[in-house]
Design goal:
This protein has 25 helices and no strands. It is an all-alpha fold. The longest helix is centred in the C-terminal third of the chain and has 25 residues, at 387-411.
Length: 554
Amino acid sequence: MNTQTSADEHLHAGQDALRRAVSAHDAAGLRFEDVPYDPALLLLAREHFEAASSLFDTEGRATDEARARLGAAEVWLKMAPSAETSTAAEASSRAALALLDTVTDWAMSIDAYLLLAEAMAPPLEHLADGAEKEGRIDQALGVLRAAEYLASQEPDAFARARVSALLSRVLGERFRGDRDSNLLDAIRAGQRALPALRERQRESPLSYPALLAHLGNCFMKLDGPRERWLAEGLAAYRDGLAAADPRLAPRLHHHLGAHVTMAESLIAAHDESLPEKEMMGRFGARVQAALDTGDIDAAEEAALETLRWAWSLRQAPNIWVGEAHKLLGSLLLHHGDVGGAQNHFYCATVVLSAAAETGGPREAALLGGAEQLLASAMDRLGQSALTAQLTAQARRALAAARSSLEEGMQLLARDPAAAHAHFDRALSLYPRDPLALFYRGAAAMGQSAFGAALRDFDAVLHLQPLNVAALYNRALLRAQRGDDEGAVADLDNLITRSPGMTVAYWQRAACLERLGRAQGAAADLERVLGEVSDAQERAAIEARLGRLRGGGGR
């Protein structure tokens, strides 16, 4: 590059290269398009901006140096998102702000604040919900509050809208405090931006529909009157779809169309459950809130509740099971229980390895985090030499464990002892699998090893408190061991969950009768009687009812 080129020429050349490198397919950091930004032109623009910055610095032209540094920050943000590009964009933006007079250079100062906040925002969606993410959100909000103040002093509605749109995006990621309040704040900020962005669609065609897509997502994540929020989310998606030009923004148009279909199907099915990612974030926020107050026990209970929720989903194990194991392992590591932490990190690696096989970069990143935690625990246990071997086992463990489980299930009815060995192997590969624990408990019952069976059903219900089959089997075992109160508690839960399970009423009646609760036992037998058609069985039940009522039977 010619060293004699003036600072102004470098600045204009950088602006020209940046203009040629990008298109209108960029909306305030919300990149819905796979835009082929020209990396050579971006590199050229950066070199020009950096040269201009250096020359302006020598000449003492602070405002022009700030303009060049902002150009460099914009170039960094147009590059493939990474920790390096975000850090460089943040540094360039901060350097520009240090040079600007916010009174005389208010418009450029707003640009600098927005670029700084935008540099801080991309990592948010990739950070795990917790202290690090919330700290970064607080920093970004501080930057945006400064931009908001500056914009409020000027008549430029579009400048205020740009600030509000980015503020909405950052608030939508916040879990500290009341999550629904944060989402409503994000929605209000976004709605303030909509009119000005709609008016400027010709200049910035993606900003308006992209913001509507974000607002639709915020509505879909709100708890409370879900029917209302689903309808609001659908309306936002529809408005965004109508505004998105499929020629200029094919991916955004497809994204909004898919979300319209999703919202319509949820409303038609009366499915008012929160999205899984949202639920995971809320559980993580509960864990972090407990940690912030120093209540480790509450944090561990919240993490355990996360694991229970993950196992309650229709398809389990899933990535949330793996993430919950990571949460629990991290808390145990904080407590000094390195062995327990290692077990959870191993389980996380097992589950996330299976997810990564069929998933994408996100699942691969989650798996990488689990493997790092496992390696750290192994190192603290003085077993780092075994880490590679254990990690290799974990990567194929779920498939091998399920194969052993299926073999055991085929043997269970005719050879409980042989089946038990297969279930043992499955659990050696994946130690906290409730399905393998359940069947090993059933095999132990088949061998009259009632204590071992009870321990396995306890373990199942620790993970799946409403597992109907485990509740029933544990109730039978408790009654067999003389714990009728415990059996009644399990049967109460079971009947609440499955009120049509007649055999549960029969078993509870027997327990209540032994406990001397004749009225409750009679009520359960009457419920059973209504389901029995065989005359001999009905006569036996009526006789028992007569004794319970003191009438001597019939």
